[in-house]
Every structure is written in structure tokens, then in C-alpha cells.
Amino acid sequence: MSLVELIARADERGLAAGGLACLDRCLPLLGEDDELLRPLWGSLADGSDWSGHLERARAACGTGGEAGASGAETLRLARSMLDAAPAERTAEALRPWADACSLASLRIHLLLDPAAEGAPDGAAPQAARAGGTEELPPLVAAELRRQIAVLELLAGHGKHGLRHALELSGEGRRVLRAVVSRRARGTVATGG
């Protein structure tokens, strides 16, 4: 099943987890502690209201870390995921947010993927989400697989899939942090 279909069929918890996982993986761009979103994950697990946790995360979120040459765009995209998160956790409110987070995260990964240097094509992630066969750079392909895995976990296991979804997000966050760090070192080394 394509990512677009999974988002269309996901329930409230799956949509919230899908969007939150995308944001979680992009935390290195915001220069934030890995624990910033932990209370939001906790509210998904226990079914409690997440609006207070969401406001605290927005207030605690700084101006961003170092993302190299594509920094302004990637930072804007990452911050937009947090800013646009709906306080009301209903499927109707979450579906457009989860969809936008999916696109933003794939775009971020495309902008940062060294294999995509020179010609980041914004249409490639959209086509891949719909099941397109275009060849994706490795970082983007891995992000697409993580997004699909999170939604499948929640569809198949409900709240019991949250723990593994959180682990997948942590893995993706570590990968993105390494990419951002490598790009920052390359920028410093070349003097640009």
C-alpha cells in the first residue's frame, strides 16, 4: 500500500504518530534535545490531551541548529511541522497535518541527501508517496520506508505499535543528525 493510501486510511492515533514521527526525526535541524517531543508520544500512548505538551514544545523550541547550505529551507520546513500541529487530536484535524509533515520531512531529506546535490526535485517525494517508481536518493528512500513503517505499525498494532514507531524515529533522527553534522563540517572545511 502506498504512503498516500496509508495516510488516507489511518485513524487518529496513526495520523498523530505519523506526523509526530516525521517531526521527531527532524529535531536535529531545530537544535533540540531528543526528549522535546517525549511528552507528546506519552499522550498518544495514554490517550490524554496533547495540547498542553504541544504548547510547551513550541515554547521550548529554539531558533534552530546548523543545517549547512540548505539550512534556511530545512529549518523552515522542520519548524512548520511543529507550528502547524493541531491542538485538537481528531482525524479531521490531523490528516492534513500528517500529510504535510510527510511531504516536509521527505523534502528535508531530499535537500540534505548528498546523492541529490545539485537538482533537488520537489516532485520526486510526492510521486514516491503515491507509489511512483522514480529512483530516490538513499536518504529520501530510507525516510519514505520509515514513514510507511510507522503507519503500518499503528494500523496493525494500535497503541502497542507506538514503542517501535518511537524507536524508528530515534534511528532516523540519529541518521539525520549525522548528515547535518557532516554537512556542517564540510561547510567549515571549505570555508563556505
From TrEMBL:
Domain of life where this protein originates: Bacteria
Designated name of the protein: Uncharacterized protein
Annotated source species: Streptomyces misionensis
